[in-house]
Specification:
The protein is an alpha+beta fold. It contains six helices and five strands; from the N terminus they run H-E-H-E-H-E-H-E-E-H-H. It has a five-stranded antiparallel sheet with strand order 2-3-1-4-5, sandwiched between helices. A hairpin with a 2-residue loop joins strand 4 (about 105-110) and strand 5.
């Protein structure tokens, strides 16, 4: 990789750091190409991204961003998971690390706040934006269903009473 390519990569990563709301730093040592591909697919489905990084270039890209305190985490075979959704990248990285011991979550940052491993796992346990939207729609939809049920109940009761009276009349 020549100097121009490195500069382009640093600029691209700097822009990624500026646009992302969460960064999760991981060690990926021992993961096969197929496992990395599977992890990237899971990230993509959740609206996040996963990228293997060069530590020295990543430290340069971090300069001047809100994620600069993550500088010390970039040693060894590191990769980053990032997304605009504050939960997506953490959720996929933590869930994948539960299934595969070779991916180790080191920590990360959510905006200006640096996260340790426990904070990343706690963040991963939160529902994603899509799950929250589904819950809100469900809560909004439930009262309408209940109102319809309440309105139908008196009509059903009247029909049962009339049916019972008719049955009594036939028996007499």
């Amino acid at each position: 990789m020549d100097r121009a390519e490195k500069e382009d990569l640093v600029a691209s990563m700097h822009q990624t750091f500026e646009e992302s709301s969460i960064i999760v730093v991981t060690h990926y040592s021992g993961l096969t190409v197929a496992e990395l591909g599977d992890l990237r697919d899971r990230m993509r489905e959740a609206g996040a991204s996963f990228k293997v990084t060069k530590n020295r270039l990543t430290r340069r890209a971090l300069e001047g961003t809100k994620y600069q305190p993550l500088n010390d985490m970039f040693t060894g075979p590191t990769a980053i998971a990032y997304s605009e959704d504050p939960v997506a990248a953490a959720k996929v990285a933590v869930n994948f690390s539960k299934d595969n011991e070779k991916l180790i979550v080191l920590g990360g940052a959510l905006g200006d706040e640096q996260l340790d491993i426990a904070a990343v796992k706690a963040l991963a346990s939160l529902p994603s934006m899509d799950e929250l939207r589904a819950k809100i729609v469900g809560m909004l939809k439930t009262p309408a269903t209940r109102v319809a049920g309440v309105l139908q109940a008196p009509a059903g009761q009247i029909a049962r009473v009339i049916g019972a009276k008719a049955a009594q009349g036939e028996a007499a």
